[in-house]
Amino acid sequence: MSAGRGKQRGTPPGRSRRGAAPPRVTRGTRNSGRGGGSSQRRAGSANQSGPGRRSDRNAQTADRRDEARPRGLGGDHVEGRQAVRELLRAGKRKVHEVLISEDAHSAATLAEIVDLAGDRRVPVREVTRRKLDEAALTAAPQGVIAKAAAVQPVPLEELARPVGNSLPLVVATDGVTDPGNLGAILRTAEVAGATGVVLTSHRSANLTPAAVKAAAGAIEYLPIALVGGLPAALAKLRDAGLWAIGLDGHAPDGLESLRVGDEPLVLVLGAEGRGLSELVERRCDQVVSIPVLGRIESLNVAAAAAVALFDIARTRRRGHTLGPAPE
User: 0.70 cut: is pTM over it?
Assistant: First the structure.
C-alpha cells in the first residue's frame, strides 16, 4: 500500500469551490479476495477470461491486422455504416474516398452515405464484396470503408475550458488496451455529454479501425488530447480547476458518495483487469466504485464508464447552471 492512501486531500491549487465546502475525499484501499459478506467487488475493468477463439480464419486475420498501432491518434481508416455516415455528416476532416460494396447499395444508411459524399464531393467507388473484404481491417465492415485524414489531437489545456454552457466533463483512460472497449467508451462519452477525452501514447489503445467502428462516429465530435503520461496530465487538469475522480472496484466509497458531479471534473477509467495504476490513483481527488449486486465481480470497463457518466449527467441535469470559471 502506498503512503498517503486513506487520507483526505486538500483543494488543489487553482480549484474554485463556488463557496461550497470541499467534499470528503478518500483513497481506495486495495482489498484482495472476498471477505465476510461485504467484499469489495471490481467495477470498471474487464473480466479476466482469455479471448475466445474465432472459427473464421478471415476474422482472425482482420483482428491481427487491426492490432497495428497507428502513429498519433490514427482514425484515418473508417469502417462501419454509422462511423462513415458521421464522418461525412460532421465534415471536420478531409475524406479521400469511400468504398461501397456493390451488393449492399440498397441499404438506407448506405444510400445516405452516397448522398453525403456527393454533397461533399468525396469520390465513391463501388467494389465487389471480395475487394471490400480485402481492404477491410475489421471482421465486419458493413459494406462500407472510408479513407480520411487522421484525427488531430487537441492541446490538453483546451479540455479544461467550458464548452458553451457546459462545465468540463473529461474522460481519461489509464491503460485501456482493448480497441472495442475504447470505442464503446468514446461512444458513451459523447452521448452522455462529455466535453473531451484524454488518451495516452503508451499502454493504451488508440484509434485503430476496430476502435473507430465501435465509437460509431463519436470521434468526429469529441476533442481528444494525446499525452505521454497520464499522471502529469491529471496534475495539469487539477491545477486548471478540475476534480480528478478515479473509477476502481477496490475503492471503499461507492459512486453515490461523489459530491462533485456538477463541478468541472475528469473521470479516470482504469485498465481491464488491474484497474487504476498506482501513480494515476495518487493524482485522483477521490476514487469511487460501482456497487455490484450479483455474483460476478467485474464490470466491463465500457459498461462501468456508462454507469458513471450517466450518473454524473443526471446530477448535472438537476438544476446545474454554469458558474464562474475556476480561478
Answer: yes
